[in-house]
Batch of 4 targets.
Target 1
Amino acid sequence: MVDLHTHSTASDGEKSPSELVLSAKESGLGVLALTDHDTVDGLEEAAKAAKSAGLVFVPGIEINVQWPTGEFHLLGLGLKEMSASMRALIKKLKENRVDRNKKILAALRNNGFEVSYEEFLESQSSGHSEDTLGRPHMAAYLTQKKIVKDRQKAFDKYLSKGTPFFVDFEGAALEDAVRAVLDSGGVPVIAHPLSLYVGWGKIGGVLGSIKDAGVQGLEAWHPGAKEGECRRLERLARELGFFVTAGSDFHGPHVRADRKLGKTAGGYKIDDRFYYEELLPRL
C-alpha cells in the first residue's frame, strides 16, 4: 500500500511527523508522502523516521491556491530542496493564515463571544506553531470554550463559507504555486479536484486550463469522493494527459475518523501503482 496525501502536527494533523510514519508502518504502508498545508516544517523529522522504519518517503506540501469557488489545493510531491520561490510563497501564506485567524476571532468577539487570540494560541498543543493554525484548530478552540458542541458544529454554524464568521483565505496564485513546486524539484498535482465546485459539464475545460498552467498530476482517488466519481475522474485525467495519484488525506482519528492511512474512496487500499507506475517516473 501507498499513501500520497497525509498531514501531521506541522499543519492540522493529529500525529507528529514521526508518529505518522510509525502509524503508516503499522498500517502496512511501503510508501508515504507528508503533505502538510503551506509548510514543510515536518519533512525532516518524517524523513528520518521513515528511514529508520524502512519506508519510502515522499517529501511534499499542500498549497492553498486562490480560486473563485470551493477550494483549490495543489500538492507538491517529491520535493528535493526548498527553493527561494517556495520559501517566499510559504512565508506569505503563513502570514495570511495568522491574519485570517485574527479576523475570525475579532468578528466573534465583536458579536459577544468571549474569545481572544492569545487564548486561542494557548489552547493549542505544543506541536502546532502560530502560523500553521487554521480553521480546524479554531473549531477545536470553540468546542473547548463550549460555544459549540463539537468541531463539525463550529464549521456548520460559524466557520464554513456562507456562515457569519467565515473569512476567506487568500491563497497563492496558481502560476506561483506551480513555479515554487517545480523550482523545488517536485511535481505539481491537483488535490481532490471535486473541491473546485465545478460541475461535470464544465470540469473538463477547467482541468484542461489547469494542466496548461503546468499542473502535471491529478488526485483522482480521494475519500471525499464516491468510488464512481473517482473512476470518472481517473478516465478524465487520462483523456487530458494527467498522471493519476491517490491519497487518504489522513489527519488523525480525532480530526477525521473516516479517513484511514493507506485507504481512499470506498475504503479501498491504495495500490502501489499510484506511486511506482504513476508518480515515480516523474520524480
Target 2
Amino acid sequence: MFGRSTDWLLGITGGVLLALMTHYNSLLAKHTTPTFASWIAHGLGAVVALLLVLLAGSRLFRWGSGREEERPGRPADVPRWVYLGGIPGAFTVILAAIAVNGSLALSGTIALMLVGQIVFGLVSDHFGMFRTPKRRITARDGVVALCVLAGSALIIFGGG
C-alpha cells in the first residue's frame, strides 16, 4: 500500500513542478525571448542531471561486485535513441513559453500538453514503440482522450 501512495505523491509532485516550471519559464520568456528562457531552463536541468548522475554513479559502482560486465547502467546497455530525448523537451519548453504568454495562458497550455501526452501514449502503445508491448486502442481509450480534450476546450474557451 505504501508504494501505491508514493506513486500518487510523486505524480502530483511532478505535475506541480511542471506547472511551476512552465510558469517561471514563461515569465522569463516574457522579459527576454522564449529561446533564451529555454536555454536557461535546460542549462539548469543539465547541471542538476549531471550532479544526480555523478551521485548515482558513485553509489552504483561502489555497490557493484567490481566486475565490469555486472555493473548496471553501462553505456553499451543504453540504446542511442535515448540520448535524443532532450530535443523534443527543448521544443516543448520553447512552445510552452510562447503559448503561456499568448491567448492560451498557463492552464490551457498544460491542458493541451496532457491531451498530446495521452494521444502519443495511445499511438505508441498501438505500434509498440520504444520496445513496449503492442496494445490495441479501445473505445474506452477514445472516450478518455475525448474527455480530456473537452475539459481542455472548457479551460481554454470558457475560462474568460
Target 3
Amino acid sequence: MGLLRKIWLPLVILLVVAVAAFGVFRLHGVFGKTELTREGSGLANDTKPFNPKTVVYEIYGPPGTVATINYLDLDAVPQIARDVTLPWSLTLTTTAPAASANIVAQGDSDTISCRITVNGELKDEKTSTGVNAQTFCLVKSA
C-alpha cells in the first residue's frame, strides 16, 4: 500500500500522456494527410499539363515600320527584340496555372498596335498614334 501511494500520481500522468499521444496520432492520421499529398500516391508528382495555354503576342503597324519590342516571357523574365520589321508575332506555350502577359513596343512610324491572344481568344488590343508611336498590351492573368 505504501508503494502505491508513492507511484499513483506518476502512473496517472503516464496514462494521460499515453492517451493524449494516441489521440493526436489518430487525429493526425485523419486530418493531416490526404491522398493528393501522401508519399507514394503518385498524384502529387503528376507533371502532365492540365490546361496548357498558348499566348500569342502581335505587334503591327504600317508596312516597313521598324520597332523595338519589350515583353515578358511566361516566366516573367523581361525580353527585348530590337529593330524588328512589322508585323511581328511570338507564340509562347505554358502549362502553368496562370501567367502574366505584357508587351510594349515603340516604332518609327505614326501608328503602332499590339494584340495579345490566349488560346485563340483576344485578351487585349491597343493602337497608338503620334510621332514614333508607342503602345502596350497587358493581360494580368492568362
Target 4
Amino acid sequence: MPELPEVETMCRGIRSVVGHSIARVFAPPCPCRPIAMVPTMRTIDRRLRGQVISRVRRLGKRVVLIAGQHALVIHPRMTGMVCLNEPPNRDYLRLQMELSDSAGATLFFWDRRGLGTVELVPADELDRRIADQRLGPDALDIALDQFVARLSNSASPIKVVLLDQRRLAGIGNLYASEILHAAKVHPSRRACDLKPAHWSQVYTHMRRILNEAIAFEGSTLSDGTYRNALNHPGGYQSHHRVYDRAGHRCFVCRRGRIRRIVQAQRSTFYCPICQPLPRRS
C-alpha cells in the first residue's frame, strides 16, 4: 500500500503541474532518518531548477514526473503519498517541489515510515533502467494471453505470484486478496495448477477491481495514511470483500468467515467457502 489504484489516483491528482516550471526542490527538516535518494537532493535540485514539467505518468506503483531531459521517479512504497495540498503533518515530509509560475503551488512527497525512494534518471533511459529491469507489464495494459504466459509457469502460490512486480506491475497485497476472492481462487493454489477458466476469471476481476478502485480514488485503510493528491481519503475501502476482515462473515456466500494466513511475510485474506482449496491427488 499504496498500490496501482492509489498511485494512479496520485498521478491524476497532480497532473495540473504539467506545463509549470520548477523553482526549487528540497528536503524540509525531518526528525526521521533520510529516505533513499539518488543522486543527492542538491544534485536533484540543480538539475531540475528551471525545467518545465511536461508529463506525469504512473510506472507500476511509482509516480514519475518528466521535466526537461530528466525523470523524477517517486516510489511511495508502504506509507508514502504525493500531493498538492499540505500533507497530514510536516514531521514526515521528505521532498518539497516549488513551482515558479503556478500561483505558489507546491508538490509534496510525504512518507510516514520512510521506506519510499526518490530517483532522478535521464528521461530517455526511464524505461530501460526501471520498467525493463524491475517491472513486468502493467496490470491494466497486459493482454490475457500474456498474463497467463507470464504467471502460469510458476509453482508458487497464485497470491505470491500476483505480487511479483517483475512478472506483473501494480498489484499489491490488498488488491491481490480482493481479486482472488472475486475469482473464487484459493490464494494458496499453485499458479501452474490453475485451469484456463481460472486464469480468465482472475484476469477479468483484476481489471474490474483495479478500475473500480481507481474510480473511487483508491482505498484509505484504518491507519488513514493514504490520501489523494488533495489530502482527501479514498472511497474503495467500503467495497472490500475480504481484506482485513478476518473473523467476519463473507459478504458473498454469507456462510464462511474470512480467514487470514501469511504468505511471503504478507497477510492474505480469503473465504474458505467461496475459495475452496482442492485436495491434491
